[in-house]
Amino acid sequence: MLLQGILIVIIGALIGWITNYIAIKMLFRPYKEINFGLFKIQGLIPKRRHEIAMTIAETVQKELISMDDIIGKLKTSEMGTELENMIDEILSRKLKSEITSKFPMLAMFLNDSMVDKIKDAIKNTILENKDEILEKIFASIEKKVDFKEIIVERVDNFSLEQLEEITFSLAKKELKHIEVIGAVLGGLIGLVQFGITFIL
Question: What is the mean pLDDT of residues 111-138?
Answer without folding.
Answer: 86
